[in-house]
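Tokens for chain A. Residues wanted.
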């Protein structure tokens, strides 16, 4: 069942407490968080809002944090306020981004799995943040493996539900009646048997592909060596062709560079174009 939790920033926003005062409360460990995200951000239960407001009132009355700590330690919070988390070990939880990074999938993929009912967040903050226990890293990797084995998401949903049942029964064998427990364990055994058969086929296929890939690698290496030999044999011809092209290009450049010089020499000598016959006749008249 999902629990409603509050991240540190949400707690500060809802209580209107100063960040400095919140830091003092955390340092004094008057209110212990329910757990930490993978980024070391604490999160609290809904009751923490009332507890912080109570501490804030005492601070406004002039009590120091040390005095508040002593009072709460001696007489506790008012009866209508509980202090969940003080007796419990602080657990570590992952945000959807943390989980996605650890598993190597996108946050959208995790959301899709959650919509399909394959995974379920352990907690959800009032601000909408989903928090997952560390076991989800293992579970999500199993989901990826099952997809490689050819299982559909519907099949994976059924198997993940059985996996969660197994974890529950492992912690408390009395959670279900003996008959229900026996039935569930038999179903799990059947799924494991079917999975082993698929794994056997997959291993056989992997063996064939490994043999084929290794063979092709050797053949490619042989072709590469033959091609390298061809390149070495053609290298002198290619060099000769390249030298010929370079020489031709050089000659063309020299010809272009001399063209302006020839024009200048022609102009300096005063060489005029020859007159035509018509012009010669006019001169004689």
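Reply:
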């Amino acid at each position: 069942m999902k629990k409603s939790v509050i991240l540190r920033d949400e707690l500060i926003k809802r209580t209107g407490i100063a960040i400095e005062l919140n830091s003092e409360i955390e340092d004094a460990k008057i209110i212990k968080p329910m757990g930490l995200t993978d980024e070391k951000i604490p999160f609290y239960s809904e009751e923490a809002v009332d507890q912080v407001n109570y501490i804030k009132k005492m601070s406004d009355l002039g009590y120091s944090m040390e005095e508040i700590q002593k009072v709460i330690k001696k007489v506790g919070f008012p009866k209508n306020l509980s202090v969940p988390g003080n007796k419990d070990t602080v657990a570590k939880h992952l945000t959807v981004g943390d989980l996605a990074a650890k598993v190597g999938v996108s946050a959208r993929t995790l959301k899709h799995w959650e919509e399909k009912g394959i995974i379920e967040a352990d907690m959800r903050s009032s601000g909408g943040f989903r928090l997952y226990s560390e076991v989800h890293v293992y579970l999500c990797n199993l989901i990826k493996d099952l997809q490689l084995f050819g299982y559909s998401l519907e099949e994976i949903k059924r198997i993940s539900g059985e996996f969660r049942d197994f974890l529950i029964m492992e912690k408390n064998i009395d959670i279900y009646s003996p008959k229900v427990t026996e039935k569930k364990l038999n179903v799990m055994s059947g799924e494991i048997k079917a999975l082993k058969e698929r794994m056997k086929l997959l291993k056989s296929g992997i063996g064939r592909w490994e043999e084929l890939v290794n063979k092709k690698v050797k053949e490619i290496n042989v072709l590469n060596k033959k091609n390298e030999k061809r390149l070495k044999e053609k290298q002198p011809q290619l060099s000769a062709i390249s030298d010929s092209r370079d020489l031709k290009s050089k000659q063309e450049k020299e010809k272009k560079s001399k063209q302006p010089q020839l024009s200048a020499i022609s102009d300096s000598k005063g060489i005029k174009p020859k007159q035509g016959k018509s012009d010669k006749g006019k001169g004689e008249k």
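Residues 178-268 form the longest helix (91 residues). The longest strand covers residues 3-7.
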